[in-house]
Specification:
Layout: H1 8-20, H2 23-30, H3 34-48, E1 53-56, E2 59-62, H4 64-87, E3 94-100, H5 102-109, H6 115-119, E4 123-129, E5 143-148, E6 155-168, E7 186-189, H7 203-212, E8 226-228, H8 231-239, E9 244-248, H9 253-258, E10 269-279, H10 286-299
Parallel strand pairs: 3-4, 3-5, 7-8, 7-9
Antiparallel strand pairs: 1-2, 5-10, 6-9, 6-10
Helix pairs in contact: 1-2, 1-3, 1-4, 2-3
């Protein structure tokens, strides 16, 4: 059966531009000029008789026809890649990249990373640890675990875990009460870029919450103590007995169970939530499906429940 298809180069140009939402980025990925990408997509639109993009100043947006075409093209190119890999005798391994915060990666992903290749033969896992969100539309990662309010325009969101924060300290400091916060250093960590966009749990927020709940926290300095630039370092400092840290109960669940940390008193402060996210409309991409299946089967069951 003969197939009357548009030129493959034009389809590749459209798929890359739609995935990256940028003619310039598509050009860089395909090693051509942005003008060539624009010309190929225009030829494709002329041949199909429909507009696939709305051209705006410094931005392109998929039309309804473009949104309908793109997912099927993604699957088609993925299938072609799989076919080539089979011919090559399986020598062409594929890589799925997941981005998450430094602490979430270290505490909840690294211990279960070995299950990924077992569940997804022929695939390798790349973990990208960063406290600043990566550009998923720009192809910096296939998917991410974001910490926030769960509202991410242009992304599909799958909730994983609602977070909570409480004072944590090493048991070697002995039994502690709230009054001990006046003599022990408070351990802080910096939240990075996300702190400018959402309200994140801090010692100041905890002190205000405790005061409203009737606890005696008068005179506590919400800024004094020791500050680290990442959450994982703050966890290690608390384990080492350097002071009292306000930590995620989810991220230190293993340390609490092992007796490396203790939660000496309350109250508990509600945090935000962790979500598995990827670019909307790309749920059937093999890399995203492999990551999602691993998270659901091998990571989510071990996450602490509220």
């Amino acid at each position: 059966m003969s197939r009357r298809l548009p030129p493959l180069a034009a389809l590749r140009a459209f798929e890359a531009a739609a995935r990256l939402m940028s003619f310039k980025r598509a050009a860089a990925e395909l090693a051509v000029t942005p003008t060539a990408i624009s010309h190929q997509i225009r030829q494709l639109e002329d041949g199909l008789g429909v507009a696939l993009f709305q051209r705006r100043t410094r931005q392109v947006v998929l039309t309804e026809a473009g949104r309908a075409l793109h997912p099927d093209l993604v699957r088609a190119f993925d299938l072609m890649g799989d076919a080539v890999a089979k011919v090559q005798g399986g020598s062409r391994r594929q890589v799925a990249t997941l981005s998450a915060t430094l602490a979430f990666t270290a505490k909840l992903l690294v211990p279960r990373a070995g299950a990924f290749p077992l569940r997804n033969p022929g695939w390798d896992l790349r973990l990208h640890a960063s406290d600043d969100p990566v550009d998923l539309a720009g192809g910096e990662a296939d998917a991410a675990i974001r910490y926030g309010l769960g509202r991410y325009p242009g992304l599909t969101t799958q909730p994983l875990l609602a977070d909570h924060f409480a004072p944590m300290a090493s048991p070697q400091l002995g039994p502690l009460a709230i009054a001990d916060l006046r003599r022990l250093p408070l351990i802080h960590f910096e939240w990075g870029a996300q702190a400018t966009k959402i309200s994140v749990p801090t010692w100041r927020a905890w002190i205000e919450h405790a005061a409203a709940a009737g606890f005696d926290v008068a005179g506590l300095d919400p800024q004094g103590g020791i500050t680290f630039n990442d959450e994982n370092s703050a966890i290690q400092a608390a384990i080492a007995g350097q002071g009292v840290a306000l930590l995620s109960t989810a991220l230190v669940a293993a340390e609490l169970k092992a007796g490396l940390l203790a939660q000496p008193f309350g109250p508990v402060l509600d945090g935000l939530r962790f979500d598995f996210v990827h670019v909307a409309g790309q749920q059937d991409r093999p890399a995203i499906a492999a990551l999602r299946n691993w998270i659901v089967a091998d990571v989510a069951p071990f996450l602490p429940q509220a």
